[in-house]
């Protein structure tokens, strides 16, 4: 598995992976994903299965104003889950955000997604808030944050 920066030619594959990882209404439509990619300070790190010549997953993150970073989405195809790929992508995003002078990073996770919450807590994230009706205008999200040291 190789971690690399996104190439413009990856866009369709990233959209498809997001669609496979999240239900309709939560998965980003292509125009929303394109919007995030155009934002100043945004970057995507791709995990590529060189043997199969396909993208196995990716993390989309952004350095925001001041000293904050934001993990927008982490998408791993089902057959590549639970092998450390998500951790590797998040850690690489943390490294990039630190180089961009971010001191903390935040993300959102559905209050109903116990495995995601446990995963992020294992990486040192703490729940710092709750956003009502964040997903599909009906499911709340936890705001989770981590100091980058």
Q: Which CATH top level class fits?
A: Alpha Beta
Rough outline: globular
Give the CATH superfamily. Gcn5-related N-acetyltransferase (GNAT)
User: How much is the average pLDDT?
Assistant: 95
Tell me the strand percentage band. Answer: 35-45%
Strand line-up across the major sheet: 1-2-3-4-5-7-6
Query: How many beta strands in the DSSP annotation?
Result: 7
N-to-C SSE string, H for helix and E for strand: EHHEEEHEHEE
Total discrete domains: 1
Largest sheet: 7 strands, mixed
Helix run count: 4
Helix content: 25-40%
CATH fold-type name: Aminopeptidase
Cα distance, first to last residue? Answer: 26 Å
Q: Which regions are unreliable across 5 or more consecutive residues at pLDDT < 50? A: none
Describe what this molecule looks like in 3D.
This protein has one domain (2-147): 3-Layer(aba) Sandwich (Aminopeptidase). It has a seven-stranded mixed beta sheet with strand order 1-2-3-4-5-7-6, sandwiched between helices. The protein contains four helices and seven strands, in the order E-H-H-E-E-E-H-E-H-E-E. The protein is 30% helix and 38% strand. The protein has helices at residues 11-21, 30-38, 85-99, 114-122; strands at 2-5, 42-49, 54-63, 68-76, 104-110, 126-135, 139-147. It is an alpha+beta fold. A hairpin with a 3-residue loop joins strand 6 (126-135) and strand 7.
Structure, briefly:
Helices cover 30% and strands 38% of the residues.
Annotation keywords:
alpha+beta, 38% strand, globular, 149 residues, Aminopeptidase
């Amino acid at each position: 598995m190789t971690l690399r920066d996104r190439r413009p030619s990856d866009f369709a594959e990233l959209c498809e992976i997001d669609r496979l990882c999240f239900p309709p209404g939560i998965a980003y439509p292509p125009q929303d994903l394109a919007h995030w990619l155009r934002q100043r300070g945004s970057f995507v790190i791709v995990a590529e299965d060189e043997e199969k010549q396909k993208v196995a997953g990716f993390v989309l993150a952004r350095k925001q104003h001041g000293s904050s970073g934001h993990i927008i989405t982490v998408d791993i195809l089902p057959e590549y889950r639970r092998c450390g790929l998500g951790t590797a992508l998040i850690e690489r995003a943390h490294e990039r955000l630190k180089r961009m002078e971010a001191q903390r990073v935040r993300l959102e996770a559905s209050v109903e997604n116990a495995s995601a919450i446990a995963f992020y807590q294992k990486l040192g994230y703490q729940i710092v808030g709750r956003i009502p009706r964040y997903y599909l205008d009906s499911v709340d999200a936890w705001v989770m944050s981590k100091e980058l040291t």
